[in-house]
């Protein structure tokens, strides 16, 4: 039977006196500073939750203190207990996240915020078909782990569910109790199992079984005979005896044990269709030793102590399971003529069974393979083990737990799995291709957001569609950030591939012209050369390829200048030579080791069309071909112009470039542009801004340093997407 004890006074309310009593009953591991911080948390909770009650009838604070008490028995730190005490304070109260940060620190406030987001999900009721039930439950488990950036948040969630189950008998209707029990069995008990919190896992499972199958629960409880505490005492005596025997023969062993809990017995009865008399691991101990030789020596000691049960011996060391699980399992008639299972393995085998591909939780749940998710589970369990060994808390947290996938909700509560960094448009395509094609906007948690906004786990996303909506070509431009997942991007590309060829050509021509205008590229690319390079038959095929997303406009606009010009012999005796200066940047046709510099008048950037001008004593100055100064020099000093091209091996060099932004004069415009420049890691050399009060418009000229034309194009594209921006153009 499930029995629990609490240090809280009788009743279902909590006030300052109850809080003081609870603080006094905390374990000795909490010092005065810890108790002071927990008192602060309790005072905030009293202010916010003094009258609010949970469905079982308890006050919110009483419930929160009970959850914190469970966590204190797990030896969790004061930040975790404080977060538990503050459960629900951000809901319908004047307490803000800023207040919590100032009073209790960043870590506690962040955990409370995550708990509030998780709490909102419990209000969403979702109807799923029976065949989708297991997948939905698995996605909910992943959602909870995805929201929690801190493993301690998951522990608070599981502990809260445990207290809800403990208090459900007295204050909940039968229907609500069964719903809570089903939720516990499908979501929270498996979470505790994956994290290795066995003492919570078995209690959650037993409590859930008590509500879902009360007759089976009571039958097994009566057949076991005696209290769980008595069975645990039996295991302790067995461990003490084995430890004494192993020491006598020089075996260095770690021994642990547990009596099988009621749910596990029920599950085995269901799976194997046997009576309880045929289940030999009702009581079990596990022995960990140094090497394989000690495994068999340990087996000899066990069989020397007690008579083994025929047919109940498996040597998975000699013959490992398909998932590489290794261990020796034997069942014996132990003390008091009670059956006892003994598992023997090396410490390396145990690590593999708990955290490797043979992990026990995966075997129990038949979970699907997911290397990223399993990495996070392993990290969480290792963190808990290190915390238990060192007694430390947040100092052990690191970035290993960072997820590569997120889990968001539809308005109906269905969980959708996406790669981290996905946008509402990625979400729309994950729901259905047609919804993605027709998407015109999105709401996240009830608020309209841009389609380029990155989603976070736990958010609810609603897609806004147009009946005859079609994809935009901007969606497949990686610089604009509409789509993160390659799967969604390929669906958009496929849609454009299905358009008629003539439409492709027109759309591609318009896209190329728009890009060349924005980048101030006046020299049209040689489309025949581009077509040949990409195995296309005609120049118009290049436009079609741009429309389909097979080529980007910037690729085509700059491609001609990447082609090396025909080499020619040039005799320039008075030009300084410096290999280090020109290597990887600009190459002068027919001549090596010439000093080159970029002209300040037109500021060429890789891969602008360029030409060189031989100066007197300062090497070759590189200009854009359409530079006004070069045009003036062609008539009078045309013989000093030389053919140059950008090297295919570009160094990490930055080039100055000017661009213009024209927009409605609004507050925060310069800040928004600066944020984009920061995100792109672009240095700003100069800024000149002018405001026209008559037209209420602003004109801004920026001088920045970029690596190449591609980075410049990406920058201009992002600035162009800002609200109220009417023109973005490179200046030459």
Layout of helices and strands, plus pairs?
Layout: H1 16-24, H2 32-49, H3 60-73, H4 78-85, H5 97-104, H6 106-121, H7 133-147, H8 151-171, H9 174-195, H10 198-212, H11 214-224, H12 228-249, E1 254-259, H13 262-272, E2 283-289, H14 292-305, E3 307-315, E4 328-333, E5 339-346, H15 347-355, H16 360-365, H17 371-390, E6 405-409, E7 415-419, H18 424-431, H19 433-438, E8 439-444, E9 447-449, E10 461-465, H20 486-497, H21 501-518, H22 527-533, H23 539-548, H24 553-562, H25 579-582, E11 586-588, E12 596-598, E13 610-614, E14 620-624, H26 628-637, E15 641-642, E16 644-646, E17 655-664, H27 669-679, E18 683-692, E19 697-706, H28 709-720, E20 725-731
Parallel strand pairs: 2-5, 12-14
Antiparallel strand pairs: 1-2, 3-4, 4-5, 6-7, 8-9, 8-10, 11-16, 13-14, 13-15, 17-19, 17-20, 18-19
